[in-house]
Design goal:
about 140 residues; mainly alpha; two-stranded antiparallel ribbon; 5 helices; about 70% helix
């Protein structure tokens, strides 16, 4: 079982996936910061200084706080503002990934076009011999 596990781990796809997950997690933090620290304040300023993270609906009568953190301490809340922020994170992340995949595909196409054609393989020995005989006969 240990040997099978070692073979599984040493396959290239598993290592590529691991690297992708690690880079994706780091990239998600960057996008999260971009949305929370740059985009959402601008959107909030456009809509009158509103902070989407504090948009919530209290699900019990005990919830009467004005901030989401305090409201969660009082009881169950439906934090739809946080959902809007996360949905915006997803849209931005998906768009960036789309642009990256598009760029890689364009690069691959360009490299395929620029790649010189492979030289023709030499003919087999019997075909080369027959060609030589044909050429000798054509001279006579």
């Amino acid at each position: 079982m240990l040997k099978e596990f070692q073979e599984f781990i040493s396959k290239g796809n598993v290592m590529d996936l691991a690297v992708g997950v690690i880079i994706g997690a780091a990239f998600a933090k960057i996008v999260d910061s971009l949305v929370n620290d740059v985009i959402m304040p601008i959107v909030g300023a456009i809509f009158g200084g509103l902070d989407f993270n504090n948009y919530f609906i209290g699900l019990s009568s005990a919830v009467n706080a004005t901030s989401l953190v305090d409201a969660k301490k009082q009881g169950a809340v439906l934090a739809y503002g946080s959902f809007i922020t996360v949905a915006l994170n997803f849209i931005i992340l998906a768009f960036i990934i789309f642009l990256m995949v598009k760029a890689v595909n364009n690069l691959r196409k360009r490299l395929e076009r620029e790649k010189p054609a492979a030289p023709a393989a030499p003919p087999p020995a019997d075909v080369a011999l027959l060609t030589e005989i044909r050429d000798l006969l054509a001279r006579r």
